[in-house]
Amino acid sequence: MIEIRNVSKTYYPDKSTPIPALKNVNLMLDHGEFVAIVGASGSGKSTLLNTLGGLDKPDSGEVFINETPMSTFNDHQYSDYRKDNVGFVFQHFHLIPHLTVLENVELALAMSSYEKKEAHQKCVQALQEVGLEKAIHQKANELSGGQQQRVAIARALVKSPNIILADEPTGALDSQTSQEIIDLLKRISKQGRLVVVVTHDEAVAEQASRIVRVKDGEIIEDRKQNKQDSVQMEITEEPSRKRSFQLKSAFRLSYHRIKEKRWRYFLVSIGISMGICGFLLALAFGSGIDNYIQYSSDKVIDSKKLDFKKEQDYMVSSDYYELKKNEHIKLVQPEYELSARIEKKPDIISYDVKPLHKEKNRNEYALPKVLYGQLPKDEEHGIALSEGTAKKLLKEGGKLEELIGKEITIKFLSMDEITSYPSRWDTQKLKISAITEQSFIGKEYSYIPYDFHTEVVKRSRFIGKDSEITTNNYEVYVDDKSSIESVVNQFKQSYTITTPENVLKELTKTFKNIQLAITGVSMLILLISSIMVGIILYISVLERRKEIGLFKAIGGRNREVRWIFFSEAILLGGMASINGTVLGIVVQVILNRALEAKIHFELLHIDVLTVLLTIGFGIVINVLACMIPANQAAKLNPIQLLKQD
Ligand SMILES: Nc1ncnc2c1ncn2[C@@H]1O[C@H](COP(=O)(O)OP(=O)(O)OP(=O)(O)O)[C@@H](O)[C@H]1O
Question: How far is the CA of 144 from the centre of ligand 1 (A)?
């Protein structure tokens, strides 16, 4: 069944001094044998056992498995050989302490395509065989040494391998328990399996059907005994199971590990949660910007309005007529603002005043949104105060609507026409006709009727009623948004033109900068957290060496070993991202509520897609952070890993 022909193996621990572990070893082993490999420490027993188990490869010579030379195996075939043919039993059991007895045994089937029910049945059967069917739900670390070794034997048996390899299986047990384990292994060999036991203990060796004595890497004795024991039943060989990795096993291991080291993982997850929360808010803010753009396009910015500016000169009548000649231009008005103040002792309320469109144009172009009252008519001496200014006027406990109809004294600032220096205050009594919505960003304006505004400007500049007001800014209104491009193209040589799009860009600049800052900070936090995750998982690789070794010994491939760590990263990332997302949603609700009265659109908007995207992003970052430690784990040598105590 297994033949070892002229096998030699030399180790070079410090690269120069060779340590020969096996020298020209020849051995043939068959079904149903119970072989004891004995010898002094360092004689090469474990190396021989590991070579039989496909964990170690010889330097020269050949190992044949049912006449197939192992040297033809690639790494995957070695793993498959361990998965289907070999069950390992170790001196220190190598059970996962926080898993139950059943879960420990199930682990051996993690690489095979068994149905859940079938797998369960096989595990229970294996545990019955070792006499532990009553303890299946007990935690492995609650068992005695002998019981733990029985679980380890059940784990080796559950795949129905035809070879059981046991390295000092009684080394950590008292003599009575040792005898029970040896009896168990003997029984297993009588089922027709090959059982190879490495032992120091001559009393154990004497019970084997064959003793192979090793000294300095050579077989010095190969003796068959207890002939009656070699009478055996034929095992019904199971066909090899298709490889199918049960991700569930990797996740179960990682879940238990995270539970065990919860404080460590909790601290690391705070960083990820904060970063993810920031990331979510940045996305939510992005939707807020879209809302703001929508709001501004509807309410703040007139989509048909262009601002024309002459850089050097004042605009004159010829400019005006030139503009009016364009068929798309419907209205041209000079643009100027007035500075005004209301004296409410001891305070002075200062604000700027713009003209309202004439009534005939009000249906065509954007108007400030009225909260209370009505916009003043053309001939009225009324003012539409902005919400912010109106609030300053209110007496404590007063309501905004109570201001409507009240008369107030407003002082408009007059300028010296030549020097442009403010020279005196022009006092007017005006009725408060309306209160308009406060704009969230940009300047607040109050409005007075167009002609009245022109009159105040002329008076403030000391010019006659029939004179033109000099300005270098014109408001130009077109018939439709679609005409803007052609108008701009025609006049861009002579004027600096600001389109509604430019205005919007300017208005959203602050938002974009805030969003950029939040994104930047959250990315920085995520970068630092992912480095921390990488470090934590690197520590995890060091601490989970036994699990990695075990996974490889039961036939796990490198890819599957990586999954032990990916599952850890996914669980950690998933939990931290969910926490971060919940935190983000809480911040969103609080901020939106707090700003509800001040702004008229949703500043932060989170939808299901954003939530899923954020959680996915958090998980991806964690998986990326775990790449290096996971690859490192996959490359580790199982023999070294299993040797550590
Ligand atoms: N990975 C390794 N690197 C370097 N030397 C090694 C390695 N594995 C084994 N050796 C050396 O090879 C020799 C045989 O080791 P092996 O573990 O097979 O002996 P053993 O008989 O099983 O010993 P023990 O009973 O103490 O476990 C020893 O001298 C050991 O130091």
Answer: 29
For residue 314 and ligand 1, the question of a CB distance below 6 A is answered with no
Q: Whose CA is nearest to atom 20 of ligand 1?
A: 42
pTM, two decimals, is 0.71
Mutate which of 10, 11, 51 to test ligand 1's pocket (most atoms within 8 Å of Cβ)? 11
Q: Do residues 210 and 36 touch, judged by C-beta distance below 8 A?
A: yes
- State both tokens at 281: 């808010």
Residue 252 belongs to some domain of the structure: no
| 333 membership: H or E segment, kind and range | strand 329-334
Residue 371 DSSP symbol:
E
Which of 499, 516, 544 is at the close of a domain?
499
> Where is 447: in which H helix or E strand?
strand 445-448
| Residue 74 reports pLDDT greater than 80 | yes
Q: Which tokens go with 472?
A: 């270098």
Q: Considering the domain boundaries, does residue 39 fall inside one?
A: yes
pLDDT in tens, 213-234: 999 999 999 998 864 454 455 5
Residue to probe by mutation, ligand 1, list 8, 25, 37, 43, most atoms within 8 Å of CB: 43
**Token pair of 149 as six digits:** 């070794």
Torsion of CA 509, 510, 515, 516, to 10 degrees: 70
Q: What is the dihedral angle through the alpha carbons of 424, 429, 435, 437, rounded to the nearest 10 degrees? A: -10
Given a contact cutoff of 8 angstroms between Cβ atoms, the answer to whether 123 and 76 are in contact is no
For 7-57, how does the pLDDT look when each residue is reduced to its tens digit (9 = 90+)?
Answer: 999 998 777 788 899 999 999 999 889 999 999 999 999 999 999 999 999
Question: Is 13 touching ligand 1 by the criterion CB < 6 Å?
Answer: yes
Same domain membership, residue 460 and residue 400: yes
Which one of 453, 478, 499 terminates a domain?
499
Other C-beta atoms closer than 10 Å to the C-beta of 340 total 23
CA 575 – CA 565 distance, rounded (Å): 15
Nearest CA to ligand 1 atom 28: 42
Q: Are residues 401 and 517 in the same domain?
A: no
Is residue 40 within 6 Å of ligand 1 at its C-beta?
A: no
- Residue 555 buriedness (CB in 10 A; 0-12 / 13-18 / 19+): buried
Sign of CA dihedral 509, 511, 514, 515: negative
CB-ligand 1 contact for 18 (6 Å cutoff): no
Residue 253 near residue 564 (C-beta atoms within 8 A): yes
Asked if ipTM goes beyond 0.90, one says yes
Which single residue is written with the structure tokens 């095992």?
Answer: 235
Q: Are residues 229 and 200 in the same domain?
A: yes
The 3-state DSSP class for residue 367 equals coil
Q: Which of 275, 250, 356, 322 is nearest to 519 (CA)?
A: 275
Give the CATH number for residue 213: 3.40.50.300
Atom number, ligand 1, closest to the C-alpha of residue 47: 18
- Full residue range of the structural domain in which residue 538 is found: 259-296+507-643
13 CA to centre of ligand 1 in angstroms? 10
pLDDT tens for 85-142 read: 999 998 888 998 888 999 999 988 888 878 889 889 999 999 998 999 899 999 999 9
Edge-first strand listing for the sheet containing 68-69? 19-29, 2-11, 60-65, 68-69
Token representation of residue 612: 């899923």
Q: Both 76 and 60 in a single domain?
A: yes
